[in-house]
């Protein structure tokens, strides 16, 4: 019988290969999880995630909505295991949390997406615009929102108009009822514009926003009596005194108040004043005077809250004693003393 050395070599190699197949096969899984995306309801609850690994692993949670609503029951594990993700009820926009699992140089992620707790997200500023004069001032606008806890995540951007300069709007803050910011004095001599945008995104990166526009000219604030009557002799039996004034100060700058100095006679005999900024008319009730002649002086005052402001010229009111029978006290019958000084 003749043998082939080549055939013997091939047979030996085959036997060696078959002998190796008898050794047990152990797959190596560096790092994996049973699910990478989990959809959660808006109500509170918990869910379990399986981790597959041949070594030690660590966990961390990252959420743009804050970590308070999302919690894990452990920070690390070894080989095959699991962890529990616990979540609170969502009272705002949809949100997500990312759990990162690391083992050696390997990383995998599990994204937890929780449904929104509101159906019609609202974020509005009222009024949507404000027009200011040359003097800067703090501005407060009404903010309406149903975003719940997500209101804390609202951010702002300021864009300035062409040739309007930058940096003249600052100290932007907001709470659940208002948007507040400050505007610097306009010393440029030109009209300028800016837009404040408030925005927030949900767990799907949908953006919700609202805008407030600011315009500011360089006109000076003005508050004057017209005409500036120096003295008015009121009827002894009483009257309603009216004084016209000019005012270009928008209400957003603050209130206009009445200044009253009693010169002679008792204090407090001027009552029921009203300042009508739209009509430019000041009215003061002067009751009948049953006593000695008396006098007072009045003016309008705007206080800018910074130690400055405008005070108009004073108007002096005088009143003689009323000798008409039956008049008693400082007020005529039927008068109301809603405000007096």
From TrEMBL:
InterPro entries: BACON, Ig-like_fold. Pfam families: BACON. Coiled coil: none annotated. Residues 62-115 form the BACON domain. This is Putative binding domain-containing protein, N-terminal.
